[in-house]
């Protein structure tokens, strides 16, 4: 694990944002389906949280992911003789990248 | 003095002291002081009292209080009688607290200087301020304190009103029958304290979480305490969170345990507590959390109002007194159901005792159990430890009591040694009587279960298990249970229920069935399921999970209640958990399944109904229970006597603090309270969370924050979402990686994309998955077949396959197949053929897999022959799907003959020609498979079909012969045999012999060849065409044969010669041509090949510009990979699933192979150089040598290898191509499968004949062989086609050839259409680049095919190539 990985706080904040969104959506869906909800299916109302180690790990994973994405995209960009990674370069490597992770 | 009037009512003065007067005086003083202080200190309070800020109190009252209150002190300390004089209590409180609180005294000290006006008159003020300050800066809202509010939203009931008034001013125990609105009293009291003490905290404690949830809502509905101030705290909330909530909120609905913990931990701000409501106060016994809480609060001490609510304080005087003591109650408000206040509001509640006769069996068992118990009871009686009486009337309770007595003071005359025995007897008896009780109240089934359990261990088992009565009883129970005879109670209950729902609307009516025992809850549930639609029942049980029944979590419980309320269920079957507090208005029937519970609980149970309108309670009783029930009911009546008249005469009460100063005389104010909609809790919590500001935000720059906002909070318009489908072509080959290698999924994607570039649909993953499963499973075959079935269902193509297979046995199978494939083709515009192919191949692959599996197994065990058999059998099965049984595997052990016979039969049925004579089942199978493949091809190219037919008809033509060979390899073979049975026979023979021979070793391949050759010669004599296939098949080890099949073998030389001109070219470029041809044949095939090429090229690019080295390297790699693959295969044999590594390796191999194939010649050369294997004939070399530098026989080996490698891809191309392009599943499968699988797959797929042999060989050998075979096929095809092409190009004379060529070209066109021209070009370029070193021919070749492809008339290009 490298030193200069992502700031855990940042990652946590991002996670929380996503979870919040997700929870809000779930909430919306649930409201419509509450009546139908069977016994025992009620979900936790609490937001998801992440523990410190998992967060660290997530940071590392994300770092790997991002660096890998950049490197691959850079390869493509280089091959095209460009010094700048464009969105299209990313798009090219994205499917396989996603599958690799 | 209205304020004091209420408490004063209760005072009974037995002191001479004129308390009344004193209080009056104090109150007056208070008011005076208030005025005086206001004049004195303008800055502080006006006529209002600002107690927290006030400094206008002097200490004199404190000192004086004792004086004046001296009697009070005595009074309290003596605590003789009922002193509930709130004023005096307050004094006491002040004093005691003052002594504790130096701070307070300091303040008083300060106050001294400020206000010293009125001496005695200040007392009241001091008192007031003191009170409010005592618990820590709780201030009273003087304005609010002038009144107390009673809501009129709800129709007023006088008893509620009076009780509320009492409860506001003293600690009260409210005993009200169920359903009469205790909660309202609590809510009003809470609300008023909420108003009076803006800082105060109010706690409502209820014993269970569902009740907490229920009460929080009920209270809200009654008085509408703002929800932002209320919170429910249960064990679900984490302690840290609770600590925060204790600070933030003001009204808490808690479970007592939580309250206890939080008080203990200090997170509960006890100093702020002003009111504590205790629901179900009858639980306040012993060390229950209620008691602990109150004890702790009193020890601090805290002044607060305690309001205890219950419907059933207890059945004994002592218990009620305990409650009063534990909760520091000073007033008892009791209304029973017959009280005139309450009477109008009590709904009629019919209680019906239903006596249910005990079932005959049950009665018998009951008696038997009694018989069992009799001797033990008698023994105990003789020992004198059990009172002598009829053993029938004993109850577990009596026994327990007797035992306790015995334990405490055993009869002195008994020797110590007898004690154990007596203990044992007691245990047995207690168990027996318990069981009897269970039997009488719950029926046979739970009793039986209990008995079974008890018989497993302990005294009971030791002493009783042999007892004949017990055995008899046990047997009887067993019979009854197994017959499923319903217990009479259950039947009665069902009857009651159905009757009830006949009268009442099932939608509005609710029924609760109580049972004391979880086991019978289950039985009841089971019984209820038979009743039909109108009853929607669920169980409602506690949390603890037993052995047989799992408990319900509180969450589930709450959900049950919710649904019960809303009507999702109309019947709940509850254990004791449902007895208390559940406030469900609609319940109009309560059925007590067992009545033998305490009267307290019976009252609670009955209290569940009759709340809003009249209800009914049915108590199901067996006669044996009746007595106990009656006894208990009588008991409970006695207690009501004690409680009447406020219990003043029976109980000792405690003093309660006055919470509202005397200067305030709260008067009732009837108010219509507007209650906001109650919002269930979940939402609120979330809102709380959202307030948090992430810490990182402070660390981020604005730009970063904006970025975050852009991606996570934007509305979406600005969002740029990377597309995953923007560059499909880039996904057809692996992109370069940095530090993260490609995953197997990526490999699948790549393969898929390669196939997809033309077309495709299908569920790769599924097939792969299924295959994996197959591998993992020993009986993979069956699964595979099942999988096939599934596939067929899922995919039309698969179904077609299935059809084909199933139809194979039929004579018209081929036709059908063809038609089916045609249909398939017709359906899909694009690469339908390929799709069909792929499907076919898939099936084959599966079979191959199976075969491979089988082979591996057999390898370990059996000789080659057996392996071959097994493989054959596998093939047979697969092809026909008939052989689902493992017997097939067993068949492998059988003689080859049998297999052959079977094969024959199948083949006969399958093949039109009915040449059943084909001795080689494996070859047949392979042929058939090939034929399948071919069929689609043929269909694809109608022209080719025609040609094929013609060929079949005319075996004579040379050109046709290669074609035929090609076809044969590709699957036309069956047709050819049809045409010439004799040939086919010969082939079969040849195949058989050579195959077997060759299978053992590659070296043996030579010998193999020889016989094959001989056979082939014969065949050649008959039909050259046939010979070629023979050679291929027979000389599977010799890919040279494939290249120049005839050239390798002397007899075939003729063929060779014929071909040689072509073959020369072909040797170098044949592979390429072949690829092209194959591409022409099968569009799909070609495409994958090309893609692979591209891929490979891509890989090669960065690495090495020089081809030869690379290729050699590749070859080596391939070897390595093959080895690894073999290992993997071995592993598979072991039963392990193939590892991702193996898959990747395999993929790599494939890719390499394909690339090599693409640049086949160079590779071949290199391969020759690299490989030292000397199997191959020299003759092969000449052909190969023609274009390349050959290393002699060693080169042959190399060629073999190379061919294997290259062929494997090539083979795959035909087969695979279908797989890849058509069925992306195939590639995935392959990747998944181990290399061994590949080899095996290749074998069966490509050259069924050889494949069997190969399979017999060891894995490596197998692979090699398979590769050879595979090579041979493609090679031959190439050659043939090449020949055709060349011929066509040169001479248009042979119409057949021409036609064929055209067909090929046509196919090529299609193929090219499908393929990316760019890719082709790229390939070509790469090939050129890499192969520049190689001979010009190669280049020409490579360029030619592309050119041909591009340009429909390929003839010129051919010429160039030649």
TrEMBL record, chain A:
Keywords: DNA damage, DNA repair, DNA-binding, Nucleus. This is Centromere protein X. Gene3D superfamilies: 6.10.130.30. InterPro entries: CENP-X (IPR018552). GO terms for molecular function: DNA binding. One of its GO terms (cellular component) is nucleus. It is found in: Nucleus. It comes from Forsythia ovata. GO terms for biological process: DNA repair. It holds the Pfam family CENP-X. Belongs to the CENP-X/MHF2 family. It comes from the Eukaryota.
From TrEMBL, chain B:
This is DEAD/DEAH box RNA helicase family protein. Belongs to the DEAD box helicase family. DEAH subfamily. FANCM sub-subfamily. InterPro entries: DEAD/DEAH_box_helicase_dom, FANCM/Mph1-like_ID, FANCM_DEXDc, Helicase_ATP-bd, Helicase_C-like, P-loop_NTPase. It comes from the Eukaryota. The keyword rRNA processing does not apply. Residues 52-83, 907-939, 1155-1179, 1233-1259, 1339-1362 are annotated as: Disordered. It comes from Forsythia ovata. One of its GO terms (cellular component) is nucleus. Pfam families: DEAD, Helicase_C. Residues 1155-1167 have a biased composition (Acidic residues). Residues 53-62, 907-924, 1237-1251, 1339-1349 have a biased composition (Polar residues). Residues 925-938 have a biased composition (Basic and acidic residues). The lineage of its organism: Eukaryota, Viridiplantae, Streptophyta, Embryophyta, Tracheophyta. PROSITE patterns: HELICASE_ATP_BIND_1, HELICASE_CTER.
């Amino acid at each position: 694990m490298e030193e200069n990985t992502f700031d855990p706080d940042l990652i946590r904040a991002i996670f929380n944002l996503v979870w919040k969104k997700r929870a809000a959506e779930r909430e919306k869906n649930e409201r419509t389906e509450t009546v139908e909800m069977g016994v025992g299916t009620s979900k936790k109302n609490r937001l998801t949280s992440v523990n410190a180690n998992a967060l660290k790990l997530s940071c590392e994973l994300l770092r790997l992911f991002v660096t890998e994405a950049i490197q691959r995209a850079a390869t493509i960009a280089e091959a095209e003789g460009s010094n700048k990674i464009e969105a299209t370069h990313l798009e090219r490597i994205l499917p396989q990248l996603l599958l690799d992770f | 003095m209205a304020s004091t009037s209420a408490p004063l009512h209760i005072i009974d003065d037995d002191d001479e002291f004129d308390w009344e007067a004193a209080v009056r005086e104090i109150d007056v003083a208070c008011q005076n002081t208030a005025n005086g202080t206001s004049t004195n200190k303008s800055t502080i309070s006006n006529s209002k009292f600002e107690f927290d800020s006030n400094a206008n109190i002097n200490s004199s009252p404190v000192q004086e209080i004792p004086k004046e209150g001296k009697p009070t002190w005595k009074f309290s300390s003596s605590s003789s009688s009922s002193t509930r004089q709130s004023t005096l209590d307050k004094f006491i409180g002040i004093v005691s607290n003052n002594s504790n609180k130096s701070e307070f005294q300091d303040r008083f000290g300060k106050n001294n200087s400020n206000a010293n006006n009125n001496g005695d008159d200040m007392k009241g003020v001091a008192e007031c301020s003191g009170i409010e300050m005592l618990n820590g800066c709780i201030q009273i809202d003087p304005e609010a304190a002038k009144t107390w509010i009673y809501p009129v939203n709800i129709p007023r009931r006088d008893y509620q009103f009076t009780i509320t008034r009492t409860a506001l001013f003293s600690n009260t125990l409210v005993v009200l029958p169920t359903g009469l609105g205790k909660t309202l009293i609590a809510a009003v009291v809470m609300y008023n304290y909420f108003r009076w003490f803006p800082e105060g905290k109010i706690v409502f404690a209820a014993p269970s979480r569902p009740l907490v949830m229920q009460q929080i809502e009920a209270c809200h509905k009654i008085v509408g305490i703002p929800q932002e101030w209320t919170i429910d705290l249960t064990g679900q909330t984490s302690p840290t969170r609770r600590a925060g909530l204790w600070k933030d909120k003001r009204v808490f609905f808690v479970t007592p345990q939580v309250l206890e913990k939080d008080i203990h931990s200090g997170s509960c701000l006890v100093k702020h507590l002003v009111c504590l409501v205790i629901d179900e106060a009858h639980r306040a016994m012993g060390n229950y959390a209620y008691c602990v809480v109150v004890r702790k609060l009193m020890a601090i001490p805290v002044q607060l109002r305690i309001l205890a609510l219950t419907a059933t304080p207890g059945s004994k005087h002592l218990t009620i007194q305990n409650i009063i003591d534990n909760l520091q109650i000073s007033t008892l408000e009791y209304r029973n159901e017959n009280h005139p206040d309450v009477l109008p509001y009590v709904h009629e509640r019919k209680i019906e005792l239903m006596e249910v006769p005990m079932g005959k069996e049950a009665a018998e068992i009951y008696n038997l159990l009694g018989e069992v118990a009799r001797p033990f009871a008698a023994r105990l009686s003789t020992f004198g430890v059990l009172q002598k009486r009829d053993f029938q009337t004993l109850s577990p309770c009596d026994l327990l009591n007797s035992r306790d007595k015995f334990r405490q003071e055993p009869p002195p005359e008994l020797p110590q040694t007898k004690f154990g025995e007596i203990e044992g007897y007691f245990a047995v008896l207690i168990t027996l009587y318990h069981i009897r009780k269970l039997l009488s109240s719950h029926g046979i089934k739970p009793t039986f279960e209990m008995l079974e359990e008890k018989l497993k261990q302990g005294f009971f088992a030791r002493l009783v298990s042999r007892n004949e009565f017990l055995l008899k009883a046990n047997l009887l129970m067993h019979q009854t249970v197994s017959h499923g005879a319903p217990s009479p109670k259950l039947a009665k209950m069902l009857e009651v229920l159905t009757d009830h729902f006949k009268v009442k609307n099932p939608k509005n009516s609710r029924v609760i069935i109580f049972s004391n025992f979880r086991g019978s809850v289950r039985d009841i549930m089971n019984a209820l399921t038979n009743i039909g639609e109108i009853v929607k029942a669920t169980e409602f049980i506690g949390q603890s999970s037993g052995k047989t029944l799992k408990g319900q979590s509180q969450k589930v419980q709450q959900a049950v209640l919710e649904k019960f309320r809303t009507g999702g269920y109309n019947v709940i079957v509850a254990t004791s958990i449902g007895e208390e507090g559940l406030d469900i208005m609609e319940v109009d029937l309560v059925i007590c399944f067992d009545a033998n519970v305490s009267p307290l609980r019976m009252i609670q149970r009955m209290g569940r109904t009759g709340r809003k309108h009249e209800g009914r309670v049915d108590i199901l009783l067996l006669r044996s229970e009746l007595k106990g029930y009656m006894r208990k009911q009588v008991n409970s009546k006695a207690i009501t006597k004690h409680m009447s008249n406020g219990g003043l005469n029976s109980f000792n009460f405690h003093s309660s603090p006055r919470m509202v100063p005397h200067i305030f005389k709260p008067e009732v104010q009837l108010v219509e309270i507007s209650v906001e909609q109650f919002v269930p809790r979940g939402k609120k919590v979330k809102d709380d969370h959202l307030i948090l500001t992430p810490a990182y935000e402070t660390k981020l720059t604005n730009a970063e924050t904006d970025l975050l906002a852009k991606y996570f909070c934007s509305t979406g318009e600005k969002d740029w979402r990377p597309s995953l489908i923007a560059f499909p072509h880039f996904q057809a080959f692996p992109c370069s990686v940095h530090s993260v290698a490609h995953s197997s999924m990526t490999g699948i994607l790549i393969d898929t994309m390669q196939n997809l570039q033309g077309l495709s649909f299908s569920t790769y993953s599924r097939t792969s998955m299924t295959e994996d499963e197959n591998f993992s499973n020993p009986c993979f075959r069956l699964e595979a077949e099942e999988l096939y079935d599934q596939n067929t269902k899922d995919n039309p193509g698969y179904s077609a396959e299935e059809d084909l297979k199933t139809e194979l046995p039929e004579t018209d199978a081929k036709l059908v197949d063809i038609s089916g494939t045609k249909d398939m083709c017709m359906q899909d515009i694009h690469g339908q053929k390929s799709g069909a192919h792929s499907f076919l191949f898939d099936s084959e692959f599966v079979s191959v897999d199976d075969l491979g599996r089988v082979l591996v197994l057999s390898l370990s065990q059996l000789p080659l022959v057996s392996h071959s058999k097994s493989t054959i059998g596998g093939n047979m099965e697969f092809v026909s799907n008939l052989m689902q049984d493992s017997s097939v595997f067993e068949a492998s052990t059988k003689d080859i003959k049998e297999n052959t016979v079977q094969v024959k039969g199948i083949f006969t049925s399958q093949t039109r020609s009915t040449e059943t004579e084909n001795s080689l089942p494996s070859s047949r199978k392979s042929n058939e498979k090939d034929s399948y493949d071919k069929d689609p091809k043929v269909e694809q190219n109608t022209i080719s079909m025609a040609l094929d037919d013609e060929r079949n008809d005319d075996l004579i033509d040379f050109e046709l012969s290669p074609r035929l060979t090609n076809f044969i390899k590709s699957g036309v073979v069956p047709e050819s045999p049809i045409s010439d049975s004799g040939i086919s026979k010969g082939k079969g023979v040849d195949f058989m012999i050579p195959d077997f021979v060759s299978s053992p070793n590659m070296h043996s391949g030579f010998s193999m060849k020889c016989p094959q050759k001989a056979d082939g010669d014969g065949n050649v004599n008959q039909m050259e065409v046939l010979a070629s296939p023979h050679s291929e098949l027979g000389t599977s080890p010799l890919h040279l044969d494939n290249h120049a099949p005839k050239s390798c073998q002397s007899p075939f030389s003729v063929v060779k010669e014929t071909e040689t001109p072509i073959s020369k070219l072909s040797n170098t470029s044949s592979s390429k041509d072949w690829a092209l041809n194959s591409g022409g044949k099968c569009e799909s095939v070609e495409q994958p090949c090309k893609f692979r090429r591209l891929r490979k090229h891509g890989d090669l690019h960065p690495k090495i510009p020089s081809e030869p080295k690379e290729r050699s390297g590749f070859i080596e790699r391939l070897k390595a990979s093959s080895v690894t693959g073999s290992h993997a295969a071995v592993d598979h044999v072991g039963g392990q699933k193939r590892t991702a590594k193996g898959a990747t390796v395999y993929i790599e191999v494939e890719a390499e192979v394909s690339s090599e194939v693409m640049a086949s010649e160079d590779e071949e050369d290199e391969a020759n150089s690299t490989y030292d294997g000397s199997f191959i004939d020299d003759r092969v070399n000449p052909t190969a040598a023609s274009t390349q530098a050959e290393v002699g026989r060693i080169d042959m080996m190399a060629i073999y290898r190379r061919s294997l490698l290259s062929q494997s891809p090539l083979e795959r191309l035909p087969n695979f191509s279908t797989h890849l392009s058509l069925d992306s599943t195939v590639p995935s499968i392959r990747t998944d499968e181990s290399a061994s699988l590949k080899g095996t797959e290749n074998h069966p797929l490509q050259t069924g004949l050889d494949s069997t042999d190969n399979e017999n060989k060891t894995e490596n050998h197998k692979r090699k062989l398979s590769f050879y075979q595979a090579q041979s096929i493609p090679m031959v095809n190439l050659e043939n086609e090449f020949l055709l092409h060349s011929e066509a190009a040169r001479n248009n004379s042979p119409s057949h050839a021409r036609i064929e060529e055209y067909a090929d070209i046509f196919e090529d066109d299609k193929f090219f259409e499908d393929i990316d021209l760019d890719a082709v070009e790229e390939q070509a370029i790469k090939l050129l680049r890499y192969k520049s070193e190689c001979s010009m021919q190669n280049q020409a070749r490579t360029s030619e095919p592309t050119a041909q492809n591009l340009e429909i008339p390929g003839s010129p290009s051919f010429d160039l190539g030649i």
